[in-house]
Amino acid sequence: MILPFALMLLAIALTPFINLHWWERHFPKVAVGLGMVTTIYYVFFLGNPGRMLHVAHEYVSFIALIGSLFVVAGGIHIEVKGEAKPWANCLFLFIGAVLANVIGTTGASMLLIRPWMRMNQHRIAAFHVVFFIFIVSNVGGCLTPIGDPPLFLGYIKGVPFWWVLEKCWIAWAIAVTGLVAVFYAFDSRNFHHAPSEVREVQTKRETWKVDGWRNVGFLALILAAVFIRQPSGLGEALMLASAVGSWFATPKRIHEANVFTFHPIREVAWLFLGIFATMVPALDYLEIHAAELGLHSEMAFFWFTGLLSGALDNAPTYLTFLAAAMGLSGLNLNNPEHVRQLVATHDHELIAISLGAVFFGAMTYIGNGPNFMVKSIAEKTGVKAPGFFAYLLKYALPILIPLMALISLLFFSRWRVF
Question: Fewest CB within a 10 Å sphere: which of 27, 189, 194, 321?
């Protein structure tokens, strides 16, 4: 029953290369069809409709959050004049990494991806999209539960709000600094190989102008709604209301300036519908057989959580391995006191799971919700983003894996420094 999930991933990775026109017309049918296979199996053969209802609720919450942030951020236009030099791009990415902890990786990605592309419009390349996903859409959001969905799920289960900042800031600083440094090497080479007229444009002073300030209020309402858990559905309703209010309150000229369309969120909604449904057997298998995977060290938790977060959505993967860690200690994930006990007695295991889920979410386009949205926005704006395998093989594996190896050596090995 893991086969539909494998087929879903292969369809996302290969079909655009085989027949892009067919895929653009029929990908919703593929996602729904494969998702129905898993749903029918759980409902009629396993007699467990509650499992799929729980996943459906998680999916609705996921789409409500990223969809509302997408609409509200699309109503804020950041105007950039001139062209960014490599040092300015590095500063922008670092600011984006910090901002991701305040408005979430989804909010920061949707707010900053368009000005990021405008800043580099005369020499933009695939690596500009990739490093934006690495830093702003994933690694940057490691300091607060607001930053990334896995950490928010941990907060809901009982992890103290400021625990992540206290325990993970050094790893965050190392990862962000390392990625910005590698980006600087890429961008400097790109800048110096650009035509002379482009470099001359880049010597002009950049002028920034922000339009659509009223949407900051809608953004604050969405962030407040994230913390509303009871009554069920109220938070999602407030997010939807914020999106609708933003859409009608935003002048048409701002949407036109942002080249705003609903295609990116439509694509993400359909594809993640299929992903959420088909990944259930894979997650259930991991939870049942966690003890057989050799999860007896912090290093194992970091790499297993990380690699599977890249292949699955990182939020449910985080919960699966958190449940496994607590099970090995005789604790129950659904008991907040037990979660706080794990924080007090086995915090390095929780650090490993948290860093693995957030950092490795950048490994593929499906590792974290904003990744696909950034790719889709870039392509609809005319920017060439790498395909699924090109992203993985050309960028993620050679850049992220060595950095993750360094993180694991410094934090989870017998020679650890922190």
Answer: 189
What is the tens place of the pLDDT at every residue in 63-72? 998 899 889 9
14 HSE (CA, 13 A, CB side): 6
The answer to whether residues 108 and 136 touch, using CB atoms and an 8 Å cutoff, is yes
Longest CA span, the chain = 67
3-state helix, strand, coil in the chain (%, to 5): 75, 0, 25
| Both structure tokens of 409 | 């050596």
3-state secondary structure of 79: strand
Asked if 319 and 379 touch (Cβ cutoff 8 Å), the reply is no
> Which of 130, 163, 170 minimizes the C-alpha distance to 144?
163
**Do the Cβ atoms of 43 and 346 come closer than 8 Å?**
no
Q: Which residue has the tokens 């000229």?
A: 253
Alpha-carbon Rg of the chain, whole angstroms?
21
pLDDT at residue 203, rounded to an integer: 45
Beta bridge partners of 210: 78
